Amino acid sequence: MDTLQTLLLGFVGIVIVNNLVFTKFLGICPYLGVSGRIDMAFGMGLAVTFVVTLAGTLTWVIDHVFLIGTSLEVMRYLCFILVIAGAVQLVEMYLRKFFPALYESFGIFLPLITTNCAILGLCLFINLWGIDNLLEAVVLSFGAGIGFTMAICIMAGIRENLQLADVPQCLQGAPITLITAGILTLAFMGFAGMIR
Amino acid sequence: MSNETSLNKTFFAGIWDNNPVLRLLLGMCPMLAVTAAVKPALTMGLSVIFVLLFSNIVVSLLRHQLKPHVRILMFTLTIATAVTIADLALKAYLPDMSAALGPYIPLIIVNCIIIGRAEACASKNGLVVSIIDALGMGAGFTLALCVLASIREVLATGKWFEMPVMPDAFVPWAGMGMPVGAFITLGLMLGLVAIINKKKA
User: Fold this and answer.
1) Domain boundaries of chain A, sorted by first residue
2) Is the pTM of this model over 0.90?
């Protein structure tokens, strides 16, 4: 019961209260770059969710089984980035084989998941928060992916409507997106302090 | 002489024309995350300059040996090594600052500016050009960070670099220290840059 509660709270916490995009500023590049259309945003969110779950779990295992056991913590960042690059490569090959249309529409943004800070950031946060339970690490990684998907889909929905709005010329494009994002974070700040 | 002017141009391109944050929209995450005050912003900027310099030098020296399909991997590993050095140095000499910046120092690994410059400049140019490019881009990034951090710190706390600068009657804007302030201020800064460029053209 106790573990279940911890897991549930951790999941809700990382999806809503400590959402990586809104409170930790992670994954801002794809958040601004791929949020033009809602279907692409959703696909991107799913790809990130898959990679982040895989990477979060694997890095936790590598960290606890190999690095801490052999006092090689210095190699942590190198290992983490290699795991992430490998996971992205896997997703890329899978999409190219089974969903060529989606693969085409992602273009450059797919390999760029490697440098999506949300993923490396989550691996580092799991390490920083001292999560010492594999199940909790898996749930947190999955939650981070869901949180990212939610954030990018909300943003894409707003931006589709924004195209009909009369935005001052100097604010068109990135500036108005950032200001919208600011107002969104203000909304999500209402959840702050609910958990932890 | 002409060589010197082109080097100058490379340097100043990084500060304004190709400013990584304000014009190319690269490296947004640290830009938003560490700019609640000037001090962490400056530390972040200097760490990025170090990493950028390190990776540009290594990539430039190795550019003839690189096979195209493994180059991204090699860039990433070089950057990760440089970041590990910077992280350990900060932990040793500025432990408070390192604790305050938390995971954002290791996150320099995935800062698009660095891998972008390795790909766009250092893997094609000689050592001198690469070094100048790293310094220019790094300076442009640090400047943008410091400007945003100054605006936010002054409005959020009434202090600049931890020294009081505002009159006593000033009421701090709490929102400026929070994520909202970062997003909206950066949005308005980008708008301002767009206006200036339109005037120039």
Assistant:
1) 34-168
2) no
